[in-house]
Amino acid sequence: MIQQIEPDVYDAAKDGLPQTNTYADSIAGHTYEYAQNGNLVSETSKYGVETQYSYNSVGNLIQKHFDIYDYHYLADGSIDKICVDGQTVVDYSYKAANSGITLSDGNYVDQIIYANGDVESYKYTSEGTLTAVFKNGEEKPEKYWELSADLSTKLPETRNWETGMRYRYDEENSQVSIYDNLVYLSNSEPAGFYQSTQTDADETSDTPATSTISGSIYSTDLSVFTDGSKIVNTVGELSNTYSFTANEDGVLVSDGITVGENTVLPAEYSYDDSGRNTEKSVTLANNTEPVSLLQQYDVNGMITGSGIDEITAHYTYDDSDQLIRTNDSFANYTSSYEYDNRGNMLSKKLYNYTTGDLGTAAPTETTTFTYANSGWKDQLTAVNGTALTYDENGNLLTYGDKTFSWCHGTRLESITDSENTYRYTCN
What we know:
The protein is mainly beta. It has strands at residues 31-34, 40-44, 50-55, 61-66, 69-73, 79-84, 87-93, 108-114, 119-124, 130-135, 142-149, 156-160, 166-169, 175-179, 192-199, 210-217, 220-226, 230-235, 238-246, 252-259, 262-271, 277-282, 291-297, 303-308, 313-317, 323-328, 333-339, 345-352, 365-371, 380-383, 386-390, 396-399, 402-407, 411-416, 421-423. It has a domain at 1-66. The radius of gyration is 28 Å and the shape is globular.
């Protein structure tokens, strides 16, 4: 819904945003409050949820407060720290004086400090070029990323010291050679390379602009070509083309994937007057009638129905636009959802399909969700009585028989269950 701003509430100095709710429905709009100098000091959603803004003496934003969450900023706009219920979860330090990292003249270090004690340090030259990333500063001064010049070629190179992958760039930065930790020697052939080329559009010949990324990895050729109406992906001898058309407003109206001589799942799209997708017509196989994937909406843009060739699922929402019931005749079930006053889901119940009142109906399945009573109140602590635990950063540590480990503050490192361990590495 778009609010019509009448001349008596319009303020050009504030981009037309009103301080009073001018909707006929008193809870339909979003209101804003300003200081005399024009700074936005608060905004309130139609649900009564308020976000407050604080400024320093010269008008720079220094704090954004929402419920139990606070974002603090420096005068130059850089993020300073993030707090939950008054506890600092992430703290940022720029040009840190006591980083524990040896620096040359002019070099400096920025740091991210997490609540669980993890520290990630970024080392820069005096010109601001990132040269290395360290984990946990003095405790583990291990380089993560390093940008350097390869001595044999004098070309810039990026290296990941954890995975052993190196990326070497040519003088124009248009081609990248890829080396892994098994083949990297100054005179060795790379494990792969890729390069990017572009052409400009030519209106006189109605030729569109194009972009091509091509290369090879472990002896397999690959390329991605696009010209604004199709994307051609080629890996070895296999190729597929994603073709699409858009109307004059740039809205997608049809698409499909061609593999060899066959077009897979060609589709056409229809929209209502508000630009919302109401139908996707898909042909599943040659010489078959297309099926229609349908969606319908209410005046607020919420999806109230969906289905294949006909609307078979209906959705109901509360005054806060939270889904509270689904009736799906095709899937033969009804579901209901309950929330706390913070918007966290408390329960999900499944029933045999019905459009009637659920007051006395017995659910076939119930899932309950429990949250922290204090501190981080939106933190899920149990599902059907099975506990979830977290570290100080809010990273999940345990759930049932699964344990999770993290590195670099918030990067998932491994998941272990009763039978297996799964490890993750960031390139």
